[in-house]
Amino acid sequence: YFETPHGLTAEQLCKMFKFEYQRVSDLVGVKESLTSFYQKSSKPKLLEICTPSAKNDLILKQYFASLK
User: Fold this and answer.
1) What pLDDT is recorded for position 18?
2) What is the reported pLDDT for 51?
3) Is the pLDDT of residue 3 over 80?
4) CA angle, 8 as apex, 39 and 19 as ends, to 5°?
5) Could you give the percent of the chain with pLDDT greater than 90?
6) Which of 29, 35, 32 lies closest to 50 in space, CA to CA?
7) Whose CA is closest to 9, among 22, 26, 27, 28?
8) Segment 29-40, tens digit of pLDDT
9) Is 22 helix (H, G, I), strand (E, B) or coil?
10) How far apart are CA 68 and CA 64, in angstroms?
11) How far apart are CA 55 and CA 16, in angstroms?
12) Which CA distances in Å does 33 have to 28, 30, 36?
């Protein structure tokens, strides 16, 4: 885990390489986006989930705990 604050998103990179791109910043957005994210596509997909910097370590630990 590392954090690099820079104010950029992956959107332009995805456009350049013709990936489908979605960006969300809250749990509601994640839940709403996952249905379309997991649908079959002819293109690679990227779901960018933005989290508050002050909570990133806690969010990541909770994510890993949910995978067990």
Assistant:
1) 97
2) 85
3) no
4) 30
5) 69
6) 29
7) 22
8) 999 999 999 999
9) strand
10) 7
11) 31
12) 9, 5, 6
